[in-house]
Amino acid sequence: MRASDIRSVLLSGYHHSLKENIIAILTGTFVVSQGVFFLQQADLLTGGTTGLALLLTQFVDLSFGQLYFLLNTPFYLMAWFRMGKGFAVTSIISGGLVSVITDNLHHVLEISRLEPLYCAAIGGLLMGLGMLILFRHQTSLGGFNVLVLYLQEKFGLSAGKLQMGIDISILVASFFLVSPMVLALSVFGAVLLNLVLAMNHKPGRYSGKMVTS
Question: Transmembrane region positions (predicted)?
Answer without folding.
Answer: 21-39, 83-102, 114-135, 182-200
